[in-house]
Amino acid sequence: MAISRVKGTRDFSPEDMKKRRYVEGVMRSVFESYGYEEILTPTFEYLELFLKKSGEEVLKHAYIFKDKSGKDLILRPEVTTPVIRFYVSNLRNRPHPLRLYYITNCFRYEEPQAGRYREFWQAGVEIIGTNSPEAMAELIIMADDVLKRLNIKHYEIRIGNVEVLKNLLSDVDDRIRSKILRHIDKGEIEKLKEYDINYEKILSIITFSGGRNELEEIAGKDMLLLMDYLDDAGVRYKVDFSIVRGLDYYSGIVFEIHNNKLGAQKQICGGGVYSLGELFGFDIKACGFAFGLDRVILSAERENVLPEVSERRFMLFLFDKKYYKKALEILRIVRKYYKCEMEIMRKKIKKSLEYANSKGIDFFIIVGEEIEKGYITIKDLKRNVQEEVPIENFEEYIKNL
Ligand code: AMP
Fold first, then answer.
1. Are residues 401 and 363 in contact, defined by beta-carbon separation less than 8 angstroms?
2. Contact partners, residue 84, CB within 8 Å, separation at least 6
3. Nearest atom in ligand 1 to 256's CA
4. CATH: 3.20.20.80, 3.30.70.100, 3.40.190.10, 3.40.50.800. Which one for 313-399?
5. Alpha-helix residue ranges (DSSP H) falling in 250-313
6. What residues contact residue 61 under an 8 Å CB cut-off, 6+ apart?
7. pTM of the predicted model, to two decimals?
8. Which ligand 1 atom sits closest to the C-alpha of 269?
9. Which CATH number fits domain 14-302: 3.30.300.30, 3.30.930.10, 3.40.228.10, 3.40.640.10?
10. What is the rounded distance in angstroms from the CA atom of residue 183 to the CA atom of residue 193?
């Protein structure tokens, strides 16, 4: 019996990888254009790192295990906490603010469904050194920029402020407060009635739809300032105080981006102001977000906005091994400009051409005895024409194809 793939994981075909690398490439180039620099942290960490600040929900779904020496380890369920660990140990002396980004895999033992996996990818950014409205504006404008560059249309940015609800629940025990926030995050409003809290007040906040003055009263000046910046930037958003995020370390303005066409797993991005410094005995001002890369790719696929990458593909066929050196020279030239594979199956030319055609190869280069007279044969498989090109013009010729 075949050994199957682990539930909630995926294999990615060459076609899948092209799409993934394209979307990643757009994110990378936008992040870098805003001055963010790439980092990477380990796939697993000491469990201790995630125990205090990530919250029960994250730990409930974490892959936790012991290594051979009995140490408790965890596969990273998210990357923000490790980034702050890295910052505290190695990056603190750099000029602030630090602008960092990562694109890597995370692991959560959740029930798999469309858009929800046990191994998934996050493309995230962190600003360390400030959590000002200017920083939050930069993050949201940048996330919006990524989606616009990908030509994704069906998304909605929702901005909230966990501080408001955390303040209202300041008398409540930490664990209970986390539970209440989790209900709000999941839209389980009825469940709130089971707790000894000011239900009406909380309901009025999470269903808030008032104007600027009331907003200032509830959420303070920073929120209004952020909204002004976003208005100036032409970024569309909605204020929604039920956005509280699933992770316990968020402490101020937060946001999520939803793609309502994705069904249950519609959240494609989440972030905000967080406080993780206490873990290390520091006061670190920071904010950030993470795109769920898989869900952004799903969005782009659903909207059919992934570009067809049509690149010219070449294949070289060698008639006789005595021209192998010549063939390598030619390959070196072609590969400066295009992708070129070489026949290695000892096929006859007819069979090799059949293979090339079935793979959609555009140009078939033949290195045969005409090379002795200084000629290379190139067959244009799409147009079904063939030409003999003098070796000294070869590079010019293929460049202009
Ligand atoms: P979080 O770290 O929970 O704020 O998640 C950030 C983003 O990662 C979310 O907006 C999702 O798009 C994505 N994400 C979280 N969990 C999963 C999962 N199990 N499968 C796929 N994407 C996920």
1. yes
2. 126, 128, 276, 277, 279, 280, 284, 286
3. 10
4. 3.40.50.800
5. 293-302
6. 77, 108, 109, 110
7. 0.92
8. 10
9. 3.30.930.10
10. 11
State which amino acid sits at residue 264: A
**In Å, how far are 134, 141, 227 from 231, measured between CA atoms?**
13, 10, 6
Which amino acid would we find at residue 250?
Answer: Y
Q: Give the binding-site residues of ligand 1, using a 6 Å CB cut-off.
A: 78, 108, 110, 116-117, 120, 122, 246-247, 267-270, 290, 292, 294-295
Which of 385, 317, 316 lies closest to 349 in space, CA to CA? 317
Could you read off the pLDDT tens digit of each residue along the chain, which spans 401 residues?
789 999 999 999 999 999 999 999 999 999 999 999 999 999 999 999 999 887 777 889 999 999 999 999 999 999 999 999 999 999 999 999 999 999 999 999 999 999 999 999 999 999 999 999 999 999 999 999 999 999 999 999 999 999 999 898 988 888 888 889 889 988 898 898 898 888 889 999 999 887 888 888 888 899 999 999 999 999 999 999 999 887 789 999 999 999 999 988 999 999 999 999 999 998 999 999 999 999 999 999 999 999 887 789 999 999 999 999 999 999 999 999 999 999 999 999 999 999 999 999 999 999 999 999 999 999 999 999 999 999 999 999 999 88
